[in-house]
Amino acid sequence: VWVNGGDRIPTGHEETYRALARGLREGDDGAHPITYHPCGWRSSAQFFHTEDWLDLNMIETWTEWAKVYPAVMADTLLTPHKPVILGEGAYENGPEYPQGPITPLIVRRQAWWAFMAGGFMTYGQDRMWRMGPGWADTFDTPGAVQMGVFRRIATSRPWWRMVPDQGVFASGVSSERTLNAALRTTDSTCIMVYLASQCHVLLHLDKILAREVRATWVDPRTGEEQDAGRYTTGNNVPGRVFPRGEKAWFSTPGHWEDAVLILDAVPDSR
Questions:
Q1: CATH code linked to domain 160-265
Q2: What is the pLDDT of residues 208-253, one digit of tens each?
Q3: 2-158 CATH fold
Q4: Cβ contacts of 77 within 8 Å, gap of 6 or more
């Protein structure tokens, strides 16, 4: 991916960045996608969204990590549709952020919020980007390791068929730093929910188009799974003309800081 811009606001220099994009297109014959890296609390969509050379939108939230979900969602909903990447969030262990040091929990929240809003993200580590002594050791910091866990969980279901759906929540969606979010497959056979803290949520089980759902907890820190039970949805019940949408309460397990809950349709054996 070619990253135009270099962490800059393009205002007043738009033609320079357009010329750079044309040069990149001519140089590699369009073999690699191009995006633009703005600075601060901004997205490339604010400046170049409708231009043909911009293949995907890049967002920088910097210290505003609690706004990742609405920022990514705003670009996901734009037309023409383009992929969205959180290109620069808050870096793990970074001491320079006004809102305080960035913990592994905050790193996970950024990743899951970006994913749940229909985008993806890049991981950053303070010592890594500064290239100071011991920077190579940062490949094994908790936040870095947990990005591997994030990938395994996120790709354990058909992510390419998932769309954001906050309508899954009947209660407990929360907001900002503790925002909970959900994805649903377009055929409504799977729902993935991210709970950003210790909390209780009431979910619409009838969002799954099956008679029963199987619920599974997954720890975003380790990938450990726990059975969360089977539930009826109220859908496809013989003799019932109007489905009665079932709901169920779920609570973040034990001492987990955050959690992923996956609801899978149980195949009808009739």
A1: 2.60.40
A2: 999 999 999 999 999 999 999 999 999 865 555 556 789 999 999 9
A3: TIM Barrel (3.20.20)
A4: none
